[in-house]
């Protein structure tokens, strides 16, 4: 499947999360594309906060391996994962897969990235080791995670308004003060084409991160100008690049010069898709290297991204589906067996229950079989 023209997604201003018209606009994008942007202005983040989080990520990945080893990824999916460290899908991959797993749309052989997964904070403290070099930065990272949660709350409120349900419906079910959640803040580093670690790269075969959909409710993606790579699978089955900063030239200019930072890209995850009977799309996406002929992206440009995976509280029941008239209408599609991974909540009938935690386990087991191997 060749890459097609860049996709044009709406950029939504979430500064008023009580505005029903904004909620409808957001819902329409979530139904049509499963992806939309949120304006940097009104998002609750300052350019300085986003910049310094990227600086921290760079600082982490630049540490010597012995330092990073101190927080190597564990079976709970928290910690650092170097490249080529695991083979979870030998049929489709030569190397590691630390993103959500590949499924039937899998493309490409490699995952040329490194990741640091940070789980929940309790009283401002991570529940996992950090390398000593980052110990002093923990409060700043905790602050960033808090801002991510706030932005997710605004988005979830607006989606609830669009779905014509109580605006608190999702927010109360994502409140980390009521129980553990699967939320993860992830720093990602994709070395450039000229990096020695990319020397085995084969154009048309290798991708930076394989095709997958995310597991949770919604995902926030922060990107840097001049470091594109994300593509989404369109309904026509083609890969469409997603611009980092729509309307802005793809340059390496420092974002402060433009008085902001690129809009935050939001996508719907499998859980929210399931919970809404497939009305909201959990769209397959991947990350690719710049094309060798690209004049816009330098070969020696690394890509860094910061991702926040927002999950409901583990004990949240996803069955029956969200009590929205629009979701009830989508139930018909469930009956026809046309909805997402494992059907929508409507297919479970009245008596069944399925918690967020059970849903996650079901998705992981469906993909991998035994859980011991799983790092997502
Ligand atoms: O780095 C990116 O742009 C996307 C990462 C991603 O899709 C993921 O971590 O699930
Ligand atoms: Fe993803």
UniProtKB/TrEMBL annotation:
The GO biological-process annotations, alphabetized, read as: small molecule biosynthetic process
Say yes or no: keyword Iron present: yes
For this UniProt record, the keywords arranged alphabetically read as follows: Iron, Metal-binding, Oxidoreductase
Q: Where is the Fe2OG dioxygenase domain?
A: 179-312
- Its recorded name reads Oxidoreductase
MF (Gene Ontology): metal ion binding; oxidoreductase activity
State one Pfam family annotation. Answer: DIOX_N
Name the family the entry cites: Belongs to the iron/ascorbate-dependent oxidoreductase family.
């Amino acid at each position: 499947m060749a890459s097609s023209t860049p996709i044009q997604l709406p950029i939504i201003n979430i500064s008023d999360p009580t505005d029903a018209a904004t909620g409808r606009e957001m819902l329409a994008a979530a139904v049509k594309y499963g992806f939309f942007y949120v304006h940097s202005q009104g998002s609750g983040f300052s350019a300085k906060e986003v910049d310094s989080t990227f600086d921290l990520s760079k600082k982490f990945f630049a540490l010597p391996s012995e330092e990073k080893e101190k927080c190597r990824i564990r079976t709970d999916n928290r910690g650092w994962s170097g490249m080529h460290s695991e083979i979870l899908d030998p049929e489709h991959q030569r190397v590691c897969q630390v993103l959500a797993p590949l499924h039937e749309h899998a493309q490409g052989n490699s995952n040329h990235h490194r990741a640091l997964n940070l789980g929940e904070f309790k009283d401002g403290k991570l529940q996992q080791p950090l390398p000593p070099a980052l110990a002093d930065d923990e409060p700043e990272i905790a602050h960033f995670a808090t801002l991510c949660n706030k932005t997710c709350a605004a988005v979830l409120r607006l989606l609830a308004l669009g779905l014509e349900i109580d605006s608190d419906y999702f927010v109360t079910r994502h409140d980390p003060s009521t129980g553990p959640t699967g939320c993860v803040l992830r720093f990602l580093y994709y070395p450039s084409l000229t990096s020695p670690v990319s020397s085995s790269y084969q154009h048309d075969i290798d991708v930076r991160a394989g095709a997958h959909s995310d597991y949770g409710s919604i995902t926030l993606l922060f990107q840097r100008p001049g470091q594109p790579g994300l593509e989404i699978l369109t309904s026509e089955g083609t890969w469409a690049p997603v611009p980092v900063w729509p309307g802005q030239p793809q340059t390496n200019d420092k974002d402060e010069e433009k008085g902001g930072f690129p809009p935050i890209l939001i996508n719907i995850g499998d859980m929210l898709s399931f919970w809404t009977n497939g009305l909201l799309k959990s769209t397959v996406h991947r990350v690719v290297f710049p094309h060798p002929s690209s004049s816009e992206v330098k070969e020696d440009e690394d890509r860094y991204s910061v991702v926040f995976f927002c999950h409901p509280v583990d004990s949240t029941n996803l069955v029956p589906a969200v009590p929205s008239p629009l979701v009830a209408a989508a139930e018909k599609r469930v009956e026809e067996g046309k909805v997402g991974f494992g059907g929508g909540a409507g297919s479970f009938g009245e008596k069944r229950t399925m918690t967020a935690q059970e849903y996650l386990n079901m998705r992981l087991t469906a993909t991998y079989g035994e859980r011991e191997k799983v790092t997502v």
